# Entry
Amino acid sequence: MMQPEYSSYAQELRAGHAIIAQTVGDSMQPLLRQGKTQVVLVPLNGPLKKGDLPLYQRPNGKYVLHRVVDVRQGVYYTRGDNRFGEERVEPEWMLGVTQAVIRGGKTIPVTDLAYQRYVSFWLGSYPLRHFADRVRRLPEILSRVLGRGKAPR
# Structure
């Protein structure tokens, strides 16, 4: 398994090679932490399902690692664990899928029961987390709607 340059992820996965990639950004927190977590990615081997964590490349060239939250009529819908909006992702954008997460030197395969429980909890708790986020942001939203700028905190 190799750790390719960022620009060759697509090339390596399309060539059938598994890779290890450093995670970047905060959209997949708390599972993945920028600079502290790596993922083992393998080439796709069939359709993805809800809960899978694929790497895809948007038409603008940006790589994204977000969880599949729905599959409708052959189109994937993804969302970062730390985000609330869904993204429509065409199947041809998909490059590979996470096989394991490496945190603190420990490799956690996606088949691990604790990992699977995390995914089930995170997907199942989305409506509650989304509601809590809306309540937390309510003063800001109301202030914006009422045209008063930022709400006092």
